[in-house]
Amino acid sequence: MQSVALIDYGSGNLRSAEKALRRAAEQLTTSVDILVTADPDRVAAADRLVLPGVGAFAACMNALAAREGLVEAMTAAVTRGAPFLGVCVGMQLLATRGLEFGETPGLGWIPGEVARLRPSDPAAKVPHMGWNALGDLDAGRPLLAGLGPTPHMYFTHSFAFAPADPAHVIATTDHGGRFTAAVARDNVMGVQFHPEKSQGPGLRLLQNFLETSA
């Protein structure tokens, strides 16, 4: 049985993420144990890790850092090759820094920065909330397998991650201009949208994460 650590650091969407992961796990032929935990030992030993997130970059990063040993445990798991998925602000925390309410250092696992959305179309409101089609999908990424060329996912955010290396962008979306919708660097992955709120396509993506190594 493989273990999946859903990291509990006070994020508001934790329970919906847990429910979606359990539904995705039901589609697999292998057994999956979903652990909602902030225990560094369990996180360090987990086969896979999911970091959810809603709210401000600084608040989420500070809450994560306040759990003694948790960031170090996450780092140890990622370093040994455990697949890691960041969701919404959980993806943004992968960046070098966030620029919400000043500058806050992130985990730095995928170089880049998180800055406020500035749509060129005045009709595109911020926060960006609702369904949007993904585009520019990296078809070779197992995380995106079976989603088709333009799957629709649910977004709710005001800031977006701009990786320093365009090769780390594996999907984009358009809201008055294109921005990053999903990233990947080796075994570290992230999505700006909420797969737990994205119905069939979101569950398929979570199933892909539970099945693949990168």
From TrEMBL:
Pathway in which this enzyme or protein is active: Amino-acid biosynthesis; L-histidine biosynthesis; L-histidine from 5-phospho-alpha-D-ribose 1-diphosphate: step 5/9
Record keyword Transmembrane present: no
UniProt GO MF annotations: glutaminase activity; imidazoleglycerol-phosphate synthase activity; lyase activity
Location in the cell: Cytoplasm
Main location group: cytoplasm
The Glutamine amidotransferase domain, residue ranges: 15-210
Keywords assigned: Amino-acid biosynthesis, Cytoplasm, Glutamine amidotransferase, Histidine biosynthesis, Hydrolase, Lyase
UniProt GO BP: L-histidine biosynthetic process
Catalytic residue positions: 88 (nucleophile), 194, 196
Record's catalysed reaction(s): 5-[(5-phospho-1-deoxy-D-ribulos-1-ylimino)methylamino]-1-(5-phospho-beta-D-ribosyl)imidazole-4-carboxamide + L-glutamine = D-erythro-1-(imidazol-4-yl)glycerol 3-phosphate + 5-amino-1-(5-phospho-beta-D-ribosyl)imidazole-4-carboxamide + L-glutamate + H(+); L-glutamine + H2O = L-glutamate + NH4(+)
InterPro entries per record: Class_I_gatase-like (IPR029062), GATASE (IPR017926), Imidazole-glycPsynth_HisH (IPR010139)
Domain of life: Bacteria
Claim: Amino-acid biosynthesis is one of the keywords in the record: yes
GO cellular component: cytoplasm
Assigned EC number: 4.3.2.10, 3.5.1.2
Function in brief: IGPS catalyzes the conversion of PRFAR and glutamine to IGP, AICAR and glutamate. The HisH subunit catalyzes the hydrolysis of glutamine to glutamate and ammonia as part of the synthesis of IGP and AICAR. The resulting ammonia molecule is channeled to the active site of HisF.
HAMAP family: HisH (MF_00278)
Quaternary context: Heterodimer of HisH and HisF.
PANTHER family: IMIDAZOLE GLYCEROL PHOSPHATE SYNTHASE SUBUNIT HISH (PTHR42701)
Protein name, entry field: Imidazole glycerol phosphate synthase subunit HisH
Organism for this UniProt entry: Caulobacter mirabilis
Encoding gene, per UniProt annotation: hisH
